[in-house]
Amino acid sequence: MKVRVGFGYDVHQLAEGESLWLGGVEIPHYKGTVAHSDGDVLIHAICDALLGAAGLRDIGWHFPDTSAEFKNIDSKMLLSRTAELLREKGFEIGNIDATLCAQKPKLKDYIPSMEETLAAILKLDPEDVSIKATTTEKLGFVGDESGMSAYAVALIQK
User: Fold this and answer.
1) Residue 49: what pLDDT?
2) pLDDT at residue 51 above 90?
3) How confident is the model over 5-32, as pLDDT tens digits?
4) Domain count along the chain
5) For residue 92, what are the domain limits?
6) DSSP secondary structure string for all residues of the chain
7) Which of 123, 124, 141, 145 could be cross-linked to 119 through a Cys-Cys bond (beta carbons 3.0 to 4.6 Å apart)?
8) What is the CATH number of the domain that holds 48?
């Protein structure tokens, strides 16, 4: 059995009047992400972790933000397609561990829904998807609420 690990990171600017999607769940907030797609930083980081683990480049390679095909696309579709790409190469997903960095809103109440949503898309048990949330103690672009970021690690096996 071949076991591989991948790391992903994503960041998006926040602006008033935009929607905020995280882990495939819409979060009520006065600011949302500015992006070509729906701007789901968590899903984008997970896609990069999965693609990287499989040696399949990155999310921008597969779903370029210069393509009209992906304008305003639901990132859950990108994650589903990423999982298909891995399966086509003979990989199975073991688990996902991710961290969201956001000063506001508080995300703890949404995490179970995110984990269930992502697990369903990836065909995993919810216990195989772990999401944490943290602030940056008001430091940097996350702390001043001008942006949001996410980190993810994925374990895959062949």
Assistant:
1) 98
2) yes
3) 999 999 999 999 999 999 999 999 999 9
4) 1
5) 3-157
6) --EEEEEEEEEEEEEET---EETTEE---SEEEE-SS---HHHHHHHHHHHHHTT---HHHHS-TT-GGGTT--HHHHHHHHHHHHHHTT-EEEEEEEEEE-SSS--TTTHHHHHHHHHHHHT--GGGEEEEEE--TT-HHHHTTSEEEEEEEEEEE-
7) 124
8) 3.30.1330.50
